[in-house]
């Protein structure tokens, strides 16, 4: 069985990071190990959330895993929210990177033109350092413009997106996948691998939801582990994320803090067949 490790926080309520990655990747028939980097009462869009880093425990877990000689087909790094956790991630990469596994990094640091609460300049600098060591940098358009230290724009068209991913690809010299590009009133994702661009656009619903980035990255990670090529993985991930948004948008009782990805999982399984 293929194995993924998901390295990110546990936000107890909020439908993001581990509580999204684990069910989505597992449902795709992939063993999903988790490294919970911190535990929060909710994600950081709530007021007064609690936040406990698990740094000490992370090093102990890593050492145990080394003794057990565990290897992962894909290492998925998401929200870290702290310099010391990013230091841990750098060490984890140097010890668990193999010739054939894929490291996918979603900086999960900003959205809609704003940094998440608590993301300092030092964290930002270290995120850039981690990005350089990964095979796929997966980000939204706010993170893309911030990482390149460019001014944020409310909308990005395909041409503008292509310029950004081309510059970002210089960071890791491998692949970049950016979401939040618009074309003909649709919204989608754009990938670049140094040679070719890949994109897919789907219906844009008139509401932004929290956690869609984590759904997209989890689906991308799972699709790649299932052997899909990057262009197909981007298509599956945009289609599934859009379906999650559609279900949530049409549900009058939906929560504000995350999308109803659970109800869209049967559709995901059809997409990856
Ligand atoms: O969805 C990304 C994410 C993950 N983890 C935490 C967050 C966020 C986004 O706000 O706050 C704790």
Structure commentary:
- By secondary structure, this protein is of the alpha/beta class.
- It contains nine helices and eleven strands.
- Strands 3-2-1-4-5-8-9-10-11 form a nine-stranded mixed beta sheet, with helices on both faces. Strands 6-7 form a two-stranded antiparallel ribbon.
- β4, α3 (83-96) and β5 (102-105) form a beta-alpha-beta unit.
- α7 (212-225) packs antiparallel against α8 (230-250).
- The longest helix is centred in the C-terminal third of the chain and has 21 residues, at 230-250.
- The two termini are 16 Å apart.
- Residues 9, 11, 16-17, 40, 43-45, 79, 108, 116, 211, 213-214 line the site of 3-hydroxy-5-(hydroxymethyl)-2-methylisonicotinaldehyde.
Topology:
Elements: E1 3-13, H1 18-27, E2 31-42, E3 51-53, H2 55-67, E4 74-77, H3 83-96, E5 102-105, E6 110-111, E7 114-115, H4 121-131, E8 136-140, H5 141-147, H6 158-172, E9 175-183, E10 186-192, E11 197-203, H7 212-225, H8 230-250, H9 265-272
Parallel strand pairs: 1-2, 1-4, 4-5, 5-8, 8-9
Antiparallel strand pairs: 2-3, 6-7, 9-10, 10-11
3-hydroxy-5-(hydroxymethyl)-2-methylisonicotinaldehyde binds next to strand 1 and helix 7.
CATH homologous superfamily assignment: Ribokinase
N-C termini distance? 16 Å
* CATH architecture label name: 3-Layer(aba) Sandwich
Widest β-sheet, arrangement of strands: 3-2-1-4-5-8-9-10-11
The number of helical runs is 9
Hetero groups bound?
Answer: 3-hydroxy-5-(hydroxymethyl)-2-methylisonicotinaldehyde
What is the count of distinct domains?
1
User: Could you spell the SSE succession in H and E letters?
Assistant: EHEEHEHEEEHEHHEEEHHH
Share of residues in helices = 40-55%
CATH topology annotation:
UDP-N-acetylmuramoyl-L-alanine:D-glutamate ligase
Basic shape: globular
Number of strands: 11
Kindly name the structural category.
Answer: alpha/beta
Percent strand equals 15-25%
Poorly predicted segments: none
């Amino acid at each position: 069985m293929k194995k993924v490790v998901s390295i990110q926080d546990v936000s107890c309520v909020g439908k993001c990071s581990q509580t999204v990655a684990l069910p989505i990747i597992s449902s795709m028939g992939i063993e999903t190990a988790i490294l919970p980097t911190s535990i929060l009462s909710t994600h950081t869009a709530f007021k007064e959330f609690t936040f406990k880093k698990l740094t000490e425990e992370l090093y102990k877990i890593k050492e145990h895993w080394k003794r057990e000689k565990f290897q992962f087909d894909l290492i998925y790094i998401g929200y870290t929210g702290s310099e010391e956790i990013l230091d841990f991630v750098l060490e984890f990469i140097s010890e668990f990177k193999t010739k054939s596994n894929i490291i996918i990094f979603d900086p999960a640091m900003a959205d809609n033109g704003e940094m998440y609460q608590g993301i300092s300049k030092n964290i930002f600098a270290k995120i850039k350092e981690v990005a350089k060591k990964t095979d796929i940098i997966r980000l939204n358009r706010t993170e893309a413009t911030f990482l390149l230290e460019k001014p944020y724009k409310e909308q990005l068209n395909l041409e503008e997106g292509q310029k950004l991913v081309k510059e970002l690809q210089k960071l890791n010299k491998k692949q970049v996948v950016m979401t939040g590009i618009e074309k003909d009133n649709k919204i989608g994702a754009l990938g670049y691998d140094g040679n070719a661009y890949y994109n897919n656009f789907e219906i844009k619903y008139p509401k932004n939801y929290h956690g869609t980035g984590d759904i997209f990255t989890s689906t991308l990670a799972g699709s790649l582990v299932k052997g899909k090529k990057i262009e197909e993985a981007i298509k599956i991930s945009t289609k599934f994320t859009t379906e999650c948004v559609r279900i949530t948008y049409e549900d009058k009782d939906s929560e504000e803090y995350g999308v109803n990805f659970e109800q869209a999982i049967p559709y995901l399984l059809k997409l990856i067949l």
